[in-house]
Design a protein that fits this description.
By secondary structure, the chain is α/β, with parallel strands linked by helices. The chain contains 18 helices and 13 strands. The strands form three sheets. The chain has a six-stranded parallel sheet, sandwiched between helices.
Amino acid sequence: MIITLVGGGSTFTPGIVKSIALRREELDVNEVRLFDIDKERQDKVAVVVDWILHQELKCDIKLTVTNDPETAYTDASFIFAQMRVGKYAMREQDEKISLRHGCVGQETCGCGGMAYGMRTIFPMMQVIDDAAKYAKPDHWILNYSNPASIVSEACRRLRPKARIINICDMPIAIIDVVAAAMGIENKKEIVYDYYGLNHFGWFTAIEHNGRDIMPELRAYIKEHEILLPAAYLKDKAALAPNSSKGNRHAKGSWYYVWKGVYEIMENFPDTLPNTYLNYYLQQKEFVEHSDPTHTRANEVMETREKNLFDGIDHYLATGVVDENVFYAGSHGDWIADLAIALKNDTKARFLVITENRGALPNMPYDAMVEVPAYIGKNGPEVIAQDPIPLFQQGLMMQQLTCEKLLVEGCIEGSYEKVLQAFTLNKTVPSMKVAKEVLDDMIEANKAFWPELK
């Protein structure tokens, strides 16, 4: 059993490998391979990965570090894809160009998300093709490269037979926060219903051991005027961007995102929104409290990125590893659990991004939607949902059409279709602004985007 991590130089790699190693018996894994086009970065991350496998956990999993696709994929059973095309330097451009024009500056939503998506579509097709060429015939690609909504639509269009499951950890991060706020120790006892598009959805029911906790959760959010655990709110230091405490999704500018959950639910209380809906429903307010000179990309570069590579340098100099410098937690656990469900045919319940095919009866058949599914050896068995309300349907159709136009424009090299996508996006105030942002994005992405005519 070989598991390959595409984007082996990611700051998330050490935590994911640790999750794999802790589940090595269930996965029956013999070898982990790191694959990245940035050799220098990956070689540094591999130092920590090697320490985790062979010193901290003292397991016999072989570690291979490579920049060669054939070496990376040959006979692999699972490919975990976590690419960041253009790295944080381009994320910073995505966010700051958007804000300069008065639009939401965010990694996966709005103009920034569309720019990132266009950088990622064709590299993801290369991963699919290389895996088909070299990996085991029954391999699975578990893709959590952002923006998952655009990537999954491109996969549907360009590689419809690919053995790929597109996933996102943000709903899991939200459930982590819900569990902490409600005093629930074992978050695996929580079962929820959810529908939407990736980074654009709603929790309709949340149960703990069969008990509906949505009324208590609504009351908690209303009382605190935010969805964050009381312990976080009492310890302000835990909310600082450089804090090693608490949930990584609750630090720095994330505070306004959790505050926004309260603001949305004051108007629409029946469902718990995915936090990313803030960028679409409160775009004006999020632009106003954003710093166009210091975005979340800067926060990450100054904390998670810096801490990991400073920690690696410290280990190389002293032989001492500070485990606080790498992120390990539900992100990696969830991905490893998904692989276990596929391998062992457990039919465990997960949230996945998949072609609708009637799961949401009043959304298009070919829409890439995010819904619960049972996972077994043959992939997702989607759990059908009730028809969604008109308000949510309208929002989803606008976003879905935006994403379809973007993917079509990227494939066809059509400036007009990409401009239509930017114009249609709810975070963009006008056609004129859409064109100004797009033209700046084209200039910034010359090394990554296809030519648009």
